[in-house]
Design goal:
The complex is a heterodimer of chains A (264) and B (348). Chain A is an alpha/beta fold and 264 residues long. Chain A has a single domain (4-263), classed as P-loop containing nucleotide triphosphate hydrolases (Rossmann fold, 3-Layer(aba) Sandwich). Helix content of chain A is 43%, strand content 22%. In chain A, the strands form two sheets. Chain A has a six-stranded mixed beta sheet with strand order 6-7-8-3-9-10, sandwiched between helices. Chain A has a four-stranded antiparallel beta sheet with strand order 2-1-4-5, covered by helices on one side. In chain A, a hairpin with a 2-residue loop joins strand 9 (226-231) and strand 10 (234-239). Chain B is 72% helix and 2% strand. The chains are: A alpha/beta (264), B mainly alpha (348). At the A-B interface, helix 2, helix 3, helix 4, helix 5 and helix 6 of A face helix 8, helix 9, helix 10 and helix 11 of B.
């Protein structure tokens, strides 16, 4: 049983086919890379998995349960959380609050919502829960090295820290599968090196599975255990980093057909 | 500052406000005491709208609709059967409204509940819209309420309106309800629920991706906002002592007045909403002197009606230039904040 399975996913926007017949399996505990040239459909795949788009064809399964038609918030509650390519933090909230927001669904989900609502209005037995959430948020922030910035507005953080905060926020949802959309975009070389360690560490320490999109090939080849390459919405290659790097179709997609023949 | 000090200061401040209100009743004439009551009513209107527009980021323009609903509901419940008999000239009031009279407190609660039910009915379909579209939908709703009030002769007495409402609303009712509203909205806004609302305001896509059911949260906030708008409507009606469906009493103009209050005070700040409401009530009365005849540098000027509104808008423009995010921005009153203001002052 794979953790996440995409079966023959096709996604169209009007006449444009963004993703065509993509099948993908992510096993529990692995770090899986999704790469491809710009406009290949990588982020569309993410949006299909997280429920922001409903695919025209195909199914998405998470732990063998179909999640294709669920709303994004329901999907997050089943254990999939994501970060965004163009950072989408809650800018006017503090770093700590950003992480605490992600835990909200655990106390306000079905059944408990009403009693919890009265608790928070009357403040009876509420502060304990609040403290619990705060401590868990602080713990996650320290894992990502952001605990010193806990009370800053999230918009005041540097670009690299904002990307890390997005990861912390996604982890706080209690997800077991993290989807990272270009986590290293805008980071310098040393930040990227730190990110590789961080992703590996959180995978090991928290028992997570990571599916990531990235353009930094050094990061992808060094970090991912398996890679899938998309071009024009189709899968053109899949395998371990060494295999993908040598695949003629991949080189063709990135550098053009001419380069392949010249290279030969 | 220690938490205990803050609690003690708050415990001192609340009875002090009550004492000041009591003194104002004793020492000031009824005109001033009416303005102080109005401050309380405007405060409730502003706080309930800031929960919706400022904290949840749902841009509603239907506030006057809920206020009108509250005003009509409670007026129909507090007027005596004999009075109703006299007032309803066009058509008789329908049963059972024509034969019941209940105390002001319960009438106000029911007014809030009726407004909340309508908020739910409006919010359920239209909260699927976002931004400007939602604003237009709610604007339309408040106009529908007014048109209904104008034409539903057997319930609202149509264009004649309701007259000679018992003047139940005094300083204590208005400020008591203001206290309840602020306590409720504050504890809600600064709980995990309020944090989720603010997250939705900042970025609804990201909030949904973090497991928050955006629709349910916004609907809850909208219904609570509607409830307190209904409460304020009941108080406002019994303060005015007449209710009629004109645009400038319970129509669109009222929505925009409340909107001015919360923007002036700082969109998203509950303290700001109260300050905005107080400023609005105070200025709109105080500036009345501008409309009388004046003696300016030896020239006699005839009184001009409308002059007040001109200066009023001018003042708002000036405030928005110097405080673009409103007087309070998004921050709230805190004892530490107050202390730091004084410290800054003494250093100069």
């Amino acid at each position: 049983m794979s953790l996440l399975t995409l079966e023959n996913i096709t996604m169209k926007f009007g006449g444009l086919t963004a993703v065509e017949d993509v099948t993908l399996r992510v096993e529990e505990g692995e770090i899986f890379g999704l790469i491809g040239p710009n406009g290949a459909g990588k982020t569309t795949v993410f949006n299909v998995v997280t429920g922001h788009y409903k695919p025209i064809e195909g199914r998405v399964l998470f732990r063998d349960n179909e999640i294709t038609t669920l709303q994004p918030d329901k999907i997050t509650r089943t254990g999939i959380a994501r970060t965004f390519q163009n950072i989408r933090l809650f800018r006017d909230l503090t770093v700590l609050e950003n992480v605490m927001v992600s835990q909200h669904h655990m106390i306000a989900s079905n059944g408990k919502a009403v009693s919890w609502f009265f608790k928070s209005v009357s403040r009876l037995g509420y502060s304990e829960k609040e403290r619990e959430m705060r401590n868990k948020a602080l713990e996650l922030l320290s894992v990502l090295g952001l605990e010193m910035l806990a009370n800053e507005k999230s918009s005041a953080l540097s670009y690299g820290s904002q990307r890390l905060l997005e990861i912390a926020r996604a982890m706080a949802t209690g997800a077991t599968l993290l989807l990272l959309d270009e986590p290293a975009a805008g980071m310098n070389a040393s930040e990227t090196a730190g990110l590789v360690d961080t992703i590996r560490r959180i995978r090991d320490d928290f028992g997570l599975t990571v599916l990531l999109i990235e353009h930094d090939m050094k990061l992808v080849m060094g970090l991912c255990e398996r890679i899938m390459v998309l071009d024009h919405g189709r899968t053109i290659s899949e395998g371990d980093p060494a295999f993908v790097q040598k695949d003629v179709r991949v080189i063709e997609a990135y550098l053009g057909r001419e380069w392949v023949t010249v290279g030969k | 500052m220690k938490k205990r000090t803050r609690i003690i200061l708050t415990l001192i401040a609340l009875p002090s406000i009550a004492l000041l209100l009591f003194l104002s009743q004793e020492l000031l004439n009824s005109y001033y005491s009416r303005i102080i009551t109005l401050i309380g009513i405007y405060g409730i209107m502003a706080v309930s709208l800031t929960l919706v527009n400022g904290i949840s980021g749902v841009f509603s323009l239907g506030h006057a609709g809920f206020i009108a609903l509250g005003a009509y509901t409670s007026a129909l419940l507090t007027l005596s059967p004999e009075q109703k008999e006299m007032t309803f000239l066009i058509e008789k009031l329908v049963w059972p409204l024509n034969s019941i009279q209940i105390p002001f407190f319960w009438a106000t609660i029911i007014a809030g509940l009726v407004a909340a039910v309508f908020a739910f009915l409006i919010g359920w379909p239209s909260l699927r819209l976002t931004g400007d579209y939602f604003a237009i939908a709610t604007l339309g709703f408040s106009e529908i309420i007014r048109i209904f009030a104008l034409n539903l002769n057997s319930i609202t007495n149509g264009a004649l309106g309701l007259k000679a409402l018992p003047d139940h609303t005094n300083v204590w009712w208005a400020w008591g309800w203001l206290f309840v509203t602020v306590a409720f909205v504050l504890s809600l806004a600064y709980s995990s629920f309020g944090r989720a609302l603010r997250a939705i305001r900042e970025d609804r896509v990201a909030a949904q991706a973090m497991g928050i059911n955006v629709f349910k949260h916004q609907l809850t906030a909208f219904v609570i906002g509607g409830f307190f708008a209904g409460i304020s409507g009941s108080l406002y009606g019994h303060w005015l002592s007449t209710i009629d469906p004109r645009t400038n009493t319970f129509g669109i103009l009222l929505t925009f007045n409340v909107l001015i209050m919360i923007v002036l005070g700082g969109l998203g700040s509950i303290t700001g909403a109260i300050i905005g409401g107080a400023l609005f009530a105070f200025l709109s009365e105080w500036l009345r002197f501008l409309e009388g005849p004046m003696n300016l540098l030896g020239f006699k000027i005839m009184g001009m009606s409308g002059m007040r509104m001109l200066v009023f808008s001018g003042l708002f423009v000036i405030i928005m230039i110097f405080w673009p995010r409103g007087l309070m921005g998004r921050s709230e009153f805190s004892w530490d904040g107050l202390v730091s203001v004084f410290k800054r002052g003494s250093k100069r």
